[in-house]
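Sequence only, no structure available. Ideas?
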Amino acid sequence: MSLALSLSLPGGLFFSRVNRKRVLEDLGPRDREQTISICLCFTIADRSGHLKSKLASLLPDVLSLFEGAAALVTKETHPEIVTILDGLDVEMARAASDFHHIGMHRRRSVELGLQMSTSDHFLYLDIDHLLRWFENERDELEAILSRLPRADLTVIGRGSEAFASLPARLSSTESIVNRIYGLVTGNEWDLLMAARGISRGAAELIVNTSTVDHIGNDLDWPLLCRSQGMSLLYETANGLTYKTNEDYANGMADSQDSDPQAWAERIEIAAL
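Reply:
I predicted one. Tokens follow.
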């Protein structure tokens, strides 16, 4: 993923507060009563509706951890998924599916979160990753949520076990991107899970000044916040795992490492 990133850097549906839970920040005796509000921001592009069952069964409980939720849903996403999100009062914006606008879609979900929520902090994470994290390591997820107020931007990467479980086409190419970021910043973090805890100030900075519309936002957002003197922290989570939507929905193991085209696609992502 190129570091030559610019550092000049459909309307929503109705919203009402979902069942929510305030997550306590345990920083010491004086802070034990402090509560934080976190708005969830995510994107979803699921033309075939692979995630229907997982969303219906898991998302209500996932949303109980957040003040509200804002999503960029591609226009091609299966209508039953839109119905599920609508029924859970997720605020939605729509846009045409476009691989080269992934960064824009992520930024738009954060913008929507700023508009519909007064939350102090935001979590951006692709929804399939979040569902698996909640399903497999809920305690780890809640613990990391409780620590988001410690920085303007928290990069959440995969733990050693999770990274080791990646298909080879991901681990081989993503390691190069992480290494380059480490050479530039001194922090060799796992960036390409795109999991970010974001303060309201950092969210406003990203929405108002980031111009990286492609998947290079994985590097752009941390570099942008760093360039403006904002605080950054790094967390790792073994509950953050990778599967295609189809494999996740059907409980199947990944089988694409023998496909040259799948390797080529991951190389293209790393080179953006």
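The first strand starts at residue 23 and ends at 24.
Hope that gets you unstuck.
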